[in-house]
Amino acid sequence: MPIKPCDHVPTEIAQPHAQQQRGCEDCLKTGDTWVHLRLCVHCGHVGCCDSSKNRHATRHSHAEGHPVIRSLEPGESWMWCNAHEKQVG
Length: 89
What we know:
Elements: H1 25-30, E1 37-40, E2 46-48, H2 56-64, E3 68-71, E4 79-81, E5 86-87
């Protein structure tokens, strides 16, 4: 059964800027490490996943009111809505 997107998924998905594709923006600033990367589909912010110690993608989502993130891992294209706490694509 296909996953139905929620109303939080924007019609146009933001892309990371060239300098953001190197890794988690916030971890790079502090010299920290991450496990996996997530993209804010609303503004293009790249943050680390919840398995990373800083959980920057979720922090950004809550702080900015941008609920939907997408995996930036090779071969993955799923999206997650933090507002609904479910996979939406």
